[in-house]
Amino acid sequence: MKASLSNYRQSPRKVRLVADLIRGKSVESAKRALTFLPKKSAPDMLQLLDSAVANARELGLSAEDLMVKMIAVNKGNVLRRFMPKARGRAARFARTMSIITLELGANKKVENSKQKIEKKPKTVKKAKKS
Question: Facing residues of 106 across strands?
Answer without folding.
Answer: 66
